[in-house]
Amino acid sequence: VKPRPRPGDLIEIFRIGYEHWAIYVEDDYVVHLAPPSEEFEVGSITSVFSNRAVVKYSRLQDVLHGCSWKINNKLDGTYLPLPVDKIIQRTKNMINKIVQYSLIEGNCEHFVNDLRYGVHRSQQDLVVQEVCAPLLPHGGGEKALVLMGTPPEWSPSSALSQGGGLCLVARFLRLEADA
Protein backbone atom coordinates (compact mmCIF):
# COMPACT_ATOMS: atom_id res chain seq x y z
CA VAL A 1 0.00 0.00 0.00
CA LYS A 2 1.41 3.35 -1.05
CA PRO A 3 1.59 6.11 1.53
CA ARG A 4 -0.97 8.86 0.91
CA PRO A 5 0.65 12.03 -0.46
CA ARG A 6 0.50 15.19 1.61
CA PRO A 7 -0.01 18.70 0.21
CA GLY A 8 3.24 19.90 -1.36
CA ASP A 9 4.65 16.40 -1.99
CA LEU A 10 6.30 15.80 -5.35
CA ILE A 11 4.92 12.88 -7.35
CA GLU A 12 7.24 11.09 -9.79
CA ILE A 13 5.36 9.20 -12.52
CA PHE A 14 7.26 6.53 -14.45
CA ARG A 15 6.32 6.87 -18.11
CA ILE A 16 7.96 4.85 -20.88
CA GLY A 17 11.33 6.51 -21.59
CA TYR A 18 11.03 9.37 -19.10
CA GLU A 19 9.61 10.51 -15.77
CA HIS A 20 6.72 12.96 -15.47
CA TRP A 21 6.41 15.08 -12.33
CA ALA A 22 3.44 16.60 -10.49
CA ILE A 23 2.88 18.30 -7.16
CA TYR A 24 0.18 17.04 -4.81
CA VAL A 25 -2.32 19.72 -3.80
CA GLU A 26 -5.34 18.19 -2.03
CA ASP A 27 -8.03 15.51 -2.18
CA ASP A 28 -6.20 13.34 -4.75
CA TYR A 29 -5.57 16.33 -7.05
CA VAL A 30 -2.19 17.36 -8.44
CA VAL A 31 -0.83 20.21 -10.52
CA HIS A 32 1.39 19.30 -13.45
CA LEU A 33 2.48 20.45 -16.91
CA ALA A 34 0.60 19.19 -19.95
CA PRO A 35 0.78 19.88 -23.69
CA PRO A 36 -1.22 22.99 -24.64
CA SER A 37 -3.25 21.27 -27.37
CA GLU A 38 -4.24 17.96 -28.83
CA GLU A 39 -1.26 18.30 -31.20
CA PHE A 40 0.66 16.22 -28.67
CA GLU A 41 -0.97 13.34 -26.82
CA VAL A 42 -1.05 13.76 -23.05
CA GLY A 43 0.99 11.07 -21.32
CA SER A 44 3.06 10.39 -24.42
CA ILE A 45 6.75 11.04 -24.91
CA THR A 46 5.74 13.12 -27.95
CA SER A 47 4.53 15.79 -25.52
CA VAL A 48 8.17 16.69 -24.78
CA PHE A 49 8.44 18.15 -28.29
CA SER A 50 6.28 21.20 -27.51
CA ASN A 51 7.95 24.45 -26.41
CA ARG A 52 4.93 25.45 -24.32
CA ALA A 53 2.92 23.74 -21.61
CA VAL A 54 -0.26 24.46 -19.73
CA VAL A 55 -0.40 24.12 -15.96
CA LYS A 56 -3.19 21.66 -15.18
CA TYR A 57 -5.11 20.81 -12.01
CA SER A 58 -6.07 17.14 -12.39
CA ARG A 59 -6.95 14.03 -10.44
CA LEU A 60 -3.78 12.04 -9.80
CA GLN A 61 -5.41 8.94 -11.29
CA ASP A 62 -6.11 10.85 -14.53
CA VAL A 63 -2.46 11.95 -14.83
CA LEU A 64 -1.04 8.45 -14.32
CA HIS A 65 -2.29 6.94 -17.61
CA GLY A 66 -1.76 3.51 -16.04
CA CYS A 67 1.85 4.21 -15.04
CA SER A 68 3.38 3.59 -11.62
CA TRP A 69 4.30 6.48 -9.33
CA LYS A 70 5.87 7.36 -6.01
CA ILE A 71 6.19 10.29 -3.65
CA ASN A 72 9.67 11.67 -4.31
CA ASN A 73 10.82 14.66 -2.30
CA LYS A 74 14.42 13.68 -3.02
CA LEU A 75 15.83 17.19 -2.73
CA ASP A 76 14.60 17.67 0.86
CA GLY A 77 18.10 16.76 2.05
CA THR A 78 19.64 19.42 -0.18
CA TYR A 79 17.07 22.25 -0.08
CA LEU A 80 14.64 23.32 2.61
CA PRO A 81 11.07 23.01 1.31
CA LEU A 82 9.02 26.19 1.45
CA PRO A 83 6.21 26.25 4.03
CA VAL A 84 3.32 24.05 2.82
CA ASP A 85 0.83 26.93 2.69
CA LYS A 86 3.22 28.89 0.47
CA ILE A 87 3.82 25.85 -1.79
CA ILE A 88 0.07 25.37 -2.23
CA GLN A 89 -0.59 29.09 -2.80
CA ARG A 90 2.18 29.33 -5.42
CA THR A 91 0.97 26.11 -7.05
CA LYS A 92 -2.68 27.18 -7.24
CA ASN A 93 -1.64 30.57 -8.67
CA MET A 94 -0.09 28.75 -11.65
CA ILE A 95 -3.21 26.73 -12.63
CA ASN A 96 -4.27 27.27 -16.28
CA LYS A 97 -1.24 29.40 -17.12
CA ILE A 98 0.76 28.75 -20.27
CA VAL A 99 4.49 28.42 -19.50
CA GLN A 100 7.60 27.95 -21.59
CA TYR A 101 8.70 24.32 -21.79
CA SER A 102 12.11 22.93 -22.63
CA LEU A 103 13.20 19.35 -22.15
CA ILE A 104 16.61 20.55 -20.97
CA GLU A 105 16.01 23.97 -19.38
CA GLY A 106 12.40 24.00 -18.20
CA ASN A 107 10.71 20.62 -17.89
CA CYS A 108 8.08 19.31 -15.46
CA GLU A 109 10.75 18.43 -12.88
CA HIS A 110 12.08 22.02 -12.95
CA PHE A 111 8.49 23.22 -12.52
CA VAL A 112 7.66 21.18 -9.40
CA ASN A 113 11.06 21.77 -7.77
CA ASP A 114 10.57 25.51 -8.22
CA LEU A 115 7.17 25.28 -6.52
CA ARG A 116 8.37 23.13 -3.59
CA TYR A 117 11.85 24.54 -2.99
CA GLY A 118 12.01 27.80 -4.95
CA VAL A 119 14.84 26.20 -6.95
CA HIS A 120 14.72 25.68 -10.73
CA ARG A 121 16.43 22.27 -10.92
CA SER A 122 16.04 18.96 -12.71
CA GLN A 123 18.21 15.91 -12.37
CA GLN A 124 17.00 14.69 -15.78
CA ASP A 125 18.54 17.75 -17.44
CA LEU A 126 21.76 17.40 -15.44
CA VAL A 127 22.29 13.93 -16.92
CA VAL A 128 21.63 15.18 -20.45
CA GLN A 129 23.96 18.17 -19.98
CA GLU A 130 26.82 16.19 -18.44
CA VAL A 131 26.74 13.28 -20.86
CA CYS A 132 25.61 14.96 -24.06
CA ALA A 133 26.75 18.60 -23.85
CA PRO A 134 29.98 18.00 -25.81
CA LEU A 135 27.97 16.31 -28.57
CA LEU A 136 25.00 18.67 -28.88
CA PRO A 137 24.87 20.92 -31.94
CA HIS A 138 24.99 24.63 -31.18
CA GLY A 139 23.34 27.47 -32.97
CA GLY A 140 20.30 29.26 -34.22
CA GLY A 141 17.02 28.21 -32.76
CA GLU A 142 17.60 24.47 -32.65
CA LYS A 143 17.02 21.98 -29.89
CA ALA A 144 18.82 18.69 -29.85
CA LEU A 145 17.53 15.40 -28.63
CA VAL A 146 19.70 12.37 -28.44
CA LEU A 147 17.99 9.28 -29.72
CA MET A 148 18.93 5.66 -29.96
CA GLY A 149 17.41 2.93 -32.03
CA THR A 150 15.44 5.10 -34.41
CA PRO A 151 15.51 4.87 -38.20
CA PRO A 152 16.63 7.73 -40.49
CA GLU A 153 12.99 8.56 -41.24
CA TRP A 154 12.36 9.10 -37.52
CA SER A 155 9.17 10.71 -36.27
CA PRO A 156 7.79 10.79 -32.72
CA SER A 157 5.05 8.29 -33.54
CA SER A 158 7.34 5.90 -35.44
CA ALA A 159 9.90 5.98 -32.62
CA LEU A 160 7.24 5.11 -30.09
CA SER A 161 5.78 2.31 -32.18
CA GLN A 162 9.24 0.79 -32.64
CA GLY A 163 10.18 1.13 -28.97
CA GLY A 164 12.61 4.03 -29.46
CA GLY A 165 12.94 6.66 -26.79
CA LEU A 166 15.10 9.30 -25.21
CA CYS A 167 18.58 7.99 -24.58
CA LEU A 168 21.93 9.52 -23.89
CA VAL A 169 23.95 8.13 -26.77
CA ALA A 170 23.64 7.85 -30.54
CA ARG A 171 22.00 10.11 -33.14
CA PHE A 172 20.70 13.65 -33.05
CA LEU A 173 17.43 15.03 -34.17
CA ARG A 174 17.22 18.76 -34.64
CA LEU A 175 13.92 20.44 -33.98
CA GLU A 176 13.07 24.06 -34.67
CA ALA A 177 12.58 25.81 -31.35
CA ASP A 178 9.40 27.49 -32.53
CA ALA A 179 7.90 24.38 -34.15
Automatic annotation (TrEMBL):
All copies of domain LRAT, residue ranges: 10-124
Keywords per UniProt: Hydrolase, Lipid metabolism, Transferase
Family matches, as Pfam families: LRAT
Superkingdom, natural source: Eukaryota
GO molecular-function terms, A-Z: N-acyltransferase activity; phospholipase A1 activity; phospholipase A2 activity
InterPro entries, per database record: H-rev107_PLA/AT (IPR051496), LRAT_dom (IPR007053)
GO CC annotation: cytoplasm
BP terms from Gene Ontology: N-acylphosphatidylethanolamine metabolic process
UniProt family annotation: Belongs to the H-rev107 family.
Annotated PANTHER family: HRAS-LIKE SUPPRESSOR - RELATED, PHOSPHOLIPASE A AND ACYLTRANSFERASE 5
Protein name: LRAT domain-containing protein
Organism: Marmota monax (Woodchuck)
